[in-house]
Amino acid sequence: ETHFQLEQLPTITAQSPSSLIAFPFDESYPMTCEAKGNPQPEFRWMKNGQEFDPSSDPRLMKEEDSGTFVIPNNGNLTEYQGTYLCYASNKLGTATSKEIEFIVPHVPKFPKETLDPVVVEEGQPFTLKCDPPKGIPPLQIYWMTINLQHIEQDERVSMGLNGDLYFSHAVEKDSRRDYCCFAAFPRIRTIVQKTAMSVVVKTTNAILQRRPLLMTPSGVRTVKHLVRGEDLKLECIPEGFPTPQVEWIKIGHKLPTKAKLESHGKLLIVPTIEQEDSGKYMCKAKNKLGEVIHYFTVTVEEPPEWLLEPESQLSMIGSDVLIKCSATGTPQPAITWRVNGLPLHAPAANRKVFDDTIVLHNAKASDSAVYQCQASNRHGTLLANANIMVMNLPPMILTKEGEDYTAVDGRGVMMHCNAFSSPSKDESSESLVGPRFTVHGNGSLEIYRAEKEDTGQYTCYAKNTEGTSAIEASLYVKDPTRITVAPEDQQVLIGTTAQLSCLAQYDKSFINDFRLLWQKDDADMGFNYTESSRSDSNLQIFNVSHGDQGVYKCVARTPVDGATASALLMVLDVPDAPEHLVLSEHKTKSVKLKWTPGDDHNSSTTEFIIQYEESQWEPGNWKELLRVPGNHASSVLKLHGHVDYRFRVAGVNGVGRGPPSEPTERYKTPPTAPDKNPENIKIEGHLPHEMDINWEPLLPIEHNGPGLEYKVSYRRQDLEEDWKEHVVKRHSFVVANTPTFVPYEIKIQARNNQGWGPEPNVVTGYSGEDFPSAAPDDVAVLVMNSSVVKVSWTRVNKDKLRGHLGGYRINWWRLRSLLDLKKSHGDKHTLTLPGDRNHAIVPRLQPFSEYSLIVMTFNGRGNGPGSHPVNFKTPEGVPEKNPVFKVTETQRHTVSLAWAPPAEPNGVLTGYLLEYQLINNTEEVGQLQTIDINKPGTTKWTLRDLEPLSKYKFHLRSCTTVGCGPVISEESTTTLEASESEGSDDAVATGLNALPCVGVTLRGNNHMRVMAQNWFSIIRVYVSWTARRLASIHGGISNQGWFIGLLCAIALLTLIVLIACFVNRNKGGKYSVKEKEDLHPDVESQGMNDDTFCEYSDNDEKPLKGSQRSLSKEIKAGDSGDSLVDYAEEDTHFNEDGSFIGEYAGRKEKRMSSEIKATTQSLA
Question: For the chain, which domains are there?
Fold first, then answer.
């Protein structure tokens, strides 16, 4: 408030531009003049040097408390045209505006006139004048016909800067009646046309050649004055025949680098001319008869610019006041002074004027005024007002009392203390000092790198000779806002979800004022919650589209500071479809295709796929024709004849393949002879005296025209004979009555109605094959070990093969085991060996056996005869694993074991190796004990002197002279009392007479189960229970006779039920029953279904199958899944060392199955 109570000189604050054009499409034209001051300034206007009162004209709209008035666009505006000057005055002085020129443009028109035709002889120069009317620049001139077709301009015909149309020499085609000059004034949206002109060119027999002359400019030298920043335009338009060429030179220098030539070299333009572009230029027009030269002197001038603009001042009474005003320009501007808008003519005792400086000596209050400095040259005028106040005034602080300032730790802060005084305030000796504190001339205190300790209350003092004033202010220093987790640049696939994260730290006092904002491309984001979501730290964009690409900025903002972090989100997508497909360079078998690639969406296009569709064979089916690199936008396409094509293109980038373009127009190629012959020719002989020739036919699009046929030519290769030819339409041909397997040369050539295809390639093939006629000789067998032999032979002669050698086959079969005297022809096994070879390894033979072997060769037709059989024997090997190994009885110190001999001893059985050791539930085990049983007929053994109630593990292996076979193991636990038979918590009784009805003692809450199992053709009954072994041995219910009798009765009933089940099965008649009590069963051929009554299995045995099979010595219990026998009649390849390289064949031996009938013994 204090500030506005002070008296102030007027100051112009707003005014209209120096030129105000009354465009006819504007509604009104404001003549602006605003000013401030105290007292409030009053306004007056001058027009063309005369007083002008806007309020006296009712058409003008005047604004209150303002010098502005508005000229409406109605009626005649010409009366308001002129130069205006605004004065703003109060009792202290007067300020003036710059001159404002109000221009009322008239509608430019060409004069109505009748123009005589321009008659000129051929070869002579002539000019068509335009003389455009004056109007508001810029002016644009066009030469056109009545039908608005541009007059073609070239080296011979050109338009000058003045709008005239120059012809360096006339030609017959220049004769026409509608040369029209059009003048366009874009600022007033007006185009006017001059009356059409007619030109008549008289032809001559010969055009005389002439040396060049200039049609414009005239004379030999032109002087150009330009204002800096304008465009320099120099033109030389010559006449002559032949048409002269124009050359431009800057004398002593090179042409400016920014210079450019237009109008076929006849116009030199130097845009935005600078002082260094001034100098001498020369144009030279020449033809073969001579040359003409014109010089241009270019001077670059400048409008006035302030070097030192006069400044407003507040000075105390009695001081010396200097008002300085300085300007530069070319020519040098003239400086004139005004006081309160009036010329400075009247002298004053204390005022002196020194060109650009006014000095007020010992200034008085009456010297207060508005001083105007005007700098002018021919290119413009500058006007500046300087308010000079001469007065004495105590300090008046304009800043409010008690302002609160907030700073950020580590950043600067400015605390204001604007004071107004005369004389100016004194510097206070109590001001803050230090490298971080600065008191500026306007009274403001600046603190650099504020610290938390700077928080507090500050006082500003303003003093001068007239008095003192002070205000207080408070400063609070806050923690800075920082982005701790900034969003990262991302590339995301279109349609996926993008997530940008941002975390910030800020001063906790702003917890209610802190904001975390997201901006996209510097604009605040408006969120559509179906597509994106925002939390305090994350921005998620669902179903990303191309419009989501951009720079995302996280803005953390508090009332005093802020922090930002940006990330670029790039949306990846397949390329857009190419556009603007154009076919060019149409030829018989090719066409050039050009296209404009689509947007690659941030993943560079790696290739373009060109597809074609034809209308005859597969209309609507697009096929790939060619792929070109992604940096190409055109390709020459090789085509077939007689095809109606159209094409399309699709781009491929790292994301995938983009959509195809729109198809091109159709292009049909003329029919031509075939470009190629059939491929993949196959010569086969399915029968001995025939040769089948097959080939891959040409695709329909490869026919190149109608009437496609194939010429098949063949001849024997080993004889000198002529080609035999046949023309067929199919893609196969059979040559009959050929010798067996002789070489032929074959070639196939395509032709259509237009002619033959290229000369075909010759391929070689053979006529039909027949079975080989000879067997390999000198077959020998070398035994390498008990299961592998090496077979060698002499190769069959090529003449006997009668076809392509397929390889050799070895067939062998086992005659007998060497333990048997009787021979029998076993199953055949085959080893197929592809290729030409004379030896092979036969693996996986049965040791200690006699075999027979033959070798044969084979071709594409089949096998040849076999060689003479060769018999050989394999040496002994180790026996197979014993099929059965069981604990039959356990007592306090003994365990009884039983087993079956190996199904294949692979030699003469010499005995068994029995091992056992203590394995109680501890980490330590007992010493391994070994028993060598050298009687091969032994099948049971009893171990003595064992520890009571201890667990043992037993191992058994069968042996020959070669060694012992694989091991079979069993575990069992000795009992506590000699009267009990316990084995794996089972009481075992062998035979019905040994059923322990009387000797069984049950302890505690026990239960019993009784099961029957067929083993060694003996019925065994197991009675098992769950007991607490260490319970009291004596006393309790176990000593009661009635209980023991009950158990025996239950056991007897169970046995009777089991016997009834077996009898019932034997009556079924499905299986033959053979009683062999001395058989050794094949456990792997037996099984048990736990869900079936009357069938059972020991816990330690493998499950028994539902049907029982009789067993003989021929059954091999150790049949392996990878035995050669498992691959009967199949081919197997082996390397020479016996590794598997082929197909192995063999049949498994059939096993005779029969129902095992259990023999029972009477109860003891």
Answer: 8-103 (2.60.40.10), 310-327+351-391 (2.60.40.10), 396-478 (2.60.40.10), 481-572 (2.60.40.10), 579-669 (2.60.40.10), 682-766 (2.60.40.10), 777-874 (2.60.40.10), 884-974 (2.60.40.10)
φ and ψ of 298, to 5 deg: -105, 125
Q: What are residue 808's DSSP bridge partners? A: 833, 857
Q: Which residues, 6 or more positions from 455, have their beta carbon under 8 angstroms from its beta carbon? A: 475, 476, 477
Residues of the chain with pLDDT under 50: 1-4, 429, 528-535, 979-1039, 1067-1164
Per-residue model confidence (pLDDT) at position 1123: 35
Cα of 534 vs its chain's centroid, Å: 27
pLDDT of residue 303: 92
Q: What is the sign, positive or negative, of the torsion defined by CA atoms of 745, 750, 755, 757?
A: negative
Structure tokens at 1136: 């020479």
- 891 phi and psi angles, rounded to 5 deg: -130, -170
User: Buried b vs exposed e over 921-942: b needs ≥16 C-beta within 10 Å?
Assistant: eeeeeeeeeeeebeebeebebe
Note the helical H segments in 560-695: none
Closest C-alpha among 1050, 743, 1083, 738 to residue 885? 1083
- 1043: helix, strand or coil: helix
Q: Residue 698, CB half-sphere, CA atoms under 13 Å: how many?
A: 25
Residue-level pLDDT at 977? 72
Asked if 581 contacts 551 with a C-beta cutoff of 8 angstroms, the reply is no
CA pair distance 391, 370, nearest whole angstrom: 15
Cis amide bond preceding 217, omega within 30? yes
CB 34 within 8 A of CB 67: yes
Taking every pair of C-alpha atoms in the chain, what is the biggest distance, in angstroms?
A: 167
- What's the distance, CA 126 to chain centroid? 66
Cα–Cα separations (whole angstroms), residue 718 to 512, 713, 766, 804: 104, 16, 11, 17
Contact predicate 411/561, CB 8 Å: yes
d(CA 15, CA 840): 114
Distance of CA 112 to the CA centre of its chain: 70
Question: What confidence score (pLDDT) does residue 422 get?
Answer: 78
Alpha carbons 792 and 833: distance in angstroms, whole number: 12
C-beta of residue 452 within 8 angstroms of C-beta of residue 409: yes
- Between CA 151 and CA 144 the distance in angstroms is 5
- For 98-114, write each residue's pLDDT tens digit: 999 999 988 899 998 88
| Chain center to CA of 238 | 61
Residues contacting residue 749 through CB under 8 Å, at least 6 positions apart: 677, 710, 711, 713, 756, 757, 759, 760
Question: What confidence score (pLDDT) does residue 1048 get?
Answer: 84
| CA 327/CA 303 separation, integer angstroms | 10
**pTM for the full predicted model:** 0.44
Amino acid at 894: T
CB atoms within 10 A of CB 223: 9
Task: Report the alpha-carbon distance of residue 294 to residue 960 in Å, rounded.
Answer: 128
Look at residue 680 in the predicted model and tell me its pLDDT: 92
* Whole-number Å distance between alpha carbons of 533 and 64: 53
Closest among 208, 200, 210, 147 to 173, alpha carbons compared: 200
How does DSSP assign 920-989, residue by residue?
-SSS--PPPEEEEE--TT--EEEE-SPPTT-EEEEEEEEE-SS-B---EEEEEE--SSTT---BTTEEEE
In whole angstroms, give the CA distance from residue 1010 to residue 1021: 6
Q: Cα separation of 942 and 930, whole Å? A: 13
Cβ-contact 981, 989 below 8 angstroms: yes
In degrees and rounded to multiples of 5, residue 812 shows phi and psi of -145, 160
